[in-house]
Write a structure and sequence with these properties.
By secondary structure, this protein is of the alpha+beta class. Helix content is 20%, strand content 29%. The protein has helices at 31-41, 100-111; strands at residues 2-7, 21-24, 52-57, 60-66, 71-73, 91-97. The longest helix is centred in the last third of the chain and has 12 residues, at 100-111. The mean pLDDT is 84.
């Protein structure tokens, strides 16, 4: 299966290059296995290793990886169940959160109604 992934920069120096890359992964790969694969080939090493990577597909979060304890949200979901038949459906985006607390705060602030 052919996928395209882009990601957030993790610091100013990392912002100097593009992060969009193409990968060929096994057809039955799960979200957890994708994160494990990308950890050695694509995801940058962060000091302290207590960050969160959220996998988005068309602006919808479909899986999450907590690096310090190596836990996942939706880790058992096969990537093929997310990808449809159209050309653009193989594109994903990795959103970076500098800590689990920062990741959790995105849900708190998105749940507060703006008046």
């Amino acid at each position: 299966m052919h996928i395209i992934i882009d990601r957030d920069a993790v610091c100013a120096a990392d912002d100097m290059s593009h992060h969009r890359e193409e990968f060929t992964v096994p057809d039955g790969i799960t979200i957890a296995s994708l994160f494990e694969y990308l950890e050695f080939k694509y995801i940058p090493i962060i000091a302290g290793n207590n960050v969160v990577w959220a996998l988005h597909h068309h602006d919808i979060e479909v899986g999450t990886y907590f690096t310090q304890n190596r836990s996942f949200i939706n880790g058992n979901v096969p990537l093929s169940s997310i990808i449809g038949n159209s050309e653009r459906d193989n594109e994903f985006y990795l959103r970076y959160y500098s800590s689990p607390d920062r990741y959790r705060k995105t849900f708190l602030f998105s749940a507060i109604p703006i008046s």
